Amino acid sequence: MTARPGGVRRRAAILSLLVLSAACATTLDDRTADGCAMSAEDAAWREGAFAAWDLTLERVIGAEADGPSPVYVFYDARCVFTGADGRWRAEAHRGEATLPDGGSIPPQVASFAAPFGPDRRVYLAMALPSVWRADGVESALGLESLMTAVFVHEMTHTLQFGAYDPIIDEMSARWGLGEDFTDDAFQDRFRGSPQIAAAIQAESTLLFAAAFTDDDAEARDLARQALASMQARRARLDGGPEAGYLEVEDVFLSLEGSAQWAAFRWLTMSEGGGHDARHALPLFRRGGRLWSQDEGLALYLAVDRLLPGWTESAFATTEPRSALRLLADAVEGG
User: Fold this and answer.
1) DSSP E strand stretches across the chain
2) What Å distances lie between residue 172 and 28, 164, 165, 177, CA to CA?
3) Domain tally for the chain?
4) Does residue 12 lie in a domain region?
5) How far is CA 302 from CA 159, 213, 231, 291, in A?
6) pLDDT tens-digit readout, 207-221
């Protein structure tokens, strides 16, 4: 899968639920090679990112820490910094940072999470701010704030592997999707359909409006219109040769939407990124070009507005409530 900011690298496997803490946010130990040392700026961002995740886990998602922490792989232009179980090592990567699953990645702008190994532990790999800055990545939110939101997005995914890997495996086998489909699979298949693209844009507009209107009745009505549009659009594929993509859409709206929601919530918390939500939204969306992320964010913002207590079922370790089920519940008043 493409290793892009905010992406999920999928592997076919069952992963136990990982509710994560900042256990690895410790000082780099002395097991270094080739004179590698994280810059002060990169190290400060890393520590802040761990703190942001702890805050999000407690105050936004509401989960409790349980299970092993992930393996963290951060890298800059010359070195890779790998942390596991509170211990870190640093070594030169010589142009390819080695990943826990045996793969590697050049020192480019990327962030993703994946399970690996026989016990299906999770790892999170992400370029450090110096890499993003050298690549010319900028944001009016501030580069470090944007990157922290991306980190929160990826950490949210690590909570979801245990529940969703079996769902994705079964879905892939049932519909013959293979191992290489991505969180953009629905968009990849239907981006050439002006009708579907226009409907998704209209639905997203309605859902964002539902999230931000000051009137509760109007919010529910806007969400109802969006749900009706989604149901009508999906009905045209139901029963046909591409019906499997309906399940693909719901699964990745669930994964990407909830991760975007968590990241946006951190970004706009006074104790977090401290940004005004209305001002930050267009900056955070960065053009809204990815359907699963953008419509997913809109959907979960609307659900969060209308359906109290939804996170418990959405982040359940078994049979999590999907995006479309949550939206239907929100429209119906719970």
Assistant:
1) 71-75, 79-84, 87-92, 97-98, 104-105, 111-116, 121-127
2) 40, 12, 10, 5
3) 2
4) no
5) 22, 10, 17, 16
6) 999 999 999 999 999
Owning domain of residue 317: 183-332
Measure the CA–CA gap between 57 and 266, rounded to whole angstroms. Answer: 10
Total Cβ atoms within 10 A of residue 167: 18
Where does residue 195 rank: exposed (0-12), middle (13-18), buried (19+ CB within 10 A)?
Answer: exposed
Cβ-proximal residues to 271 (8 Å cutoff; 6+ apart), any chain: 55, 59
Of 83, 3, 20, the residue nearest 56 (C-alpha): 20
| Any domain includes 19 | no
Residues 327 and 198 in one domain: yes
> 143 with 188, same domain?
no
In a domain? residue 208? yes
Please name which of 46, 21, 71 lies closest in space to residue 132, comparing C-alpha atoms.
46
Q: Over 60: is that where the pLDDT of 18 sits?
A: no
Q: Provide the whole-model pTM.
A: 0.89
Q: Record the tokens describing residue 60, joined without a space.
A: 């936004």
46-55: pLDDT as tens digits? 999 999 999 9
- Name which of 7, 25, 13, 15 is nearest 74 in CA terms: 25
Q: How many residues does the chain have?
A: 334
Whether residue 65 is found in the same domain as residue 133: yes
Question: What is the rounded average pLDDT of the residues 307-316?
Answer: 95
